[in-house]
């Protein structure tokens, strides 16, 4: 969003990105995240648990919790998959959509040096987006398709996918 405004409307940047608008965007995103997380937690809390209560996961996920239930958890699994797809693909779709608009706007710039400057501004962000989304999506796809049978390997892939990108963030920027 920031790159879109900065490249497509550079002279109006400070009037579009006001503190109030940023506060509303942040509040909206936090509200969405809370709503996405609250329903799986409520439904998992209502399940009967009669076996081990030891969660086999190093990450805060719903799947290892509802797998301990001694009843049908297909609804919880579907809800978890829908939540994961929404949380991953929603922002990724928005990012791709805004970058398509940015690329169209940049190709209309006459000067090659200005085009390069605009692409360079976006390149670091795109690199971080790829570094974050590719391993996370790979971990979830491999886990949901049960292509990783070894739980320790799945935990390692998931842990690397959520720790390496934030560590590289300050280096790339």
Give the key terms.
173 residues; mainly alpha; 76% helix; elongated; transmembrane helix; membrane; GPCR1_Superfamily_Member; odorant binding; Olfactory receptor
Number of folding domains? 1
Overall radius of gyration: 20 Å
Sequence stretches where pLDDT stays below 50 over 5 or more residues: none
End-to-end Cα distance: 17 Å
The H-and-E topology, N to C, reads as HHHHHHH
Number of discrete helical segments: 7
Helix content: over 70%
Overall pLDDT, averaged? 82
The number of distinct β-strands equals 0
Protein name: Olfactory receptor
Transmembrane segments: 22-45, 85-106, 118-141, 153-172
GO molecular function: odorant binding; olfactory receptor activity
InterPro entries: GPCR1_Superfamily_Member, GPCR_Rhodpsn_7TM, Olfact_rcpt
Descriptive overview:
- InterPro entries: GPCR1_Superfamily_Member, GPCR_Rhodpsn_7TM, Olfact_rcpt.
- Residues 1-173 form the G-protein coupled receptors family 1 profile domain.
- It is found in: Membrane.
- It is a multi-pass membrane protein.
- Its main location: membrane.
- The protein starts with a helix and ends with a helix.
- It is elongated, with a radius of gyration of 20 Å.
- Helix 1 runs parallel beside helix 5 (74-107), helix 3 packs antiparallel against helix 5 (74-107) and helix 6 (112-144) runs antiparallel to helix 7 (151-172).
- With 173 residues, it is mainly α.
- It contains seven helices and no strands.
- It has one domain (1-171).
- The longest helix has 34 residues, at 74-107.
- It has helices at 2-8, 13-16, 19-45, 63-66, 74-107, 112-144, 151-172.
